[in-house]
Amino acid sequence: MEELVMKEQYTEIEWLDDLYNTSNSDRTVTVARTSLKTFDLFCQSQDMSRDEMVTRYQKWFKPEKNSENEQDIQSICISLSKCCKFMNEDHEEIQTSNDNARGGVKTFKKKSPKTIKLYFGFMKSYLRKCHGIRLTIDDIRDYVSFPKQRKDQRQPITLDQLKQIMTNCNPSRRALYYVLVTSGMRIGEALTLTRKNFRFSERPVRVVLEAENTKTKESRETYITSEAFEKLKLLLGDIVNHPEDCDCVKCNEQFFNILKTSVHQAVSYEDQYFGKLRAKLGFTKKYPNSIRYVTNIHSMRAYFITKASQKNGSDYGHALSGHGSYLKQYIRIPQEEQAKLYLDLEPELLIESVKVESKDKEKKIVALEQIVEQLQDKMLRIELLNQ
Question: Who's near 109: CB < 8 A, 6+ residues apart?
Answer without folding.
Answer: 90, 291
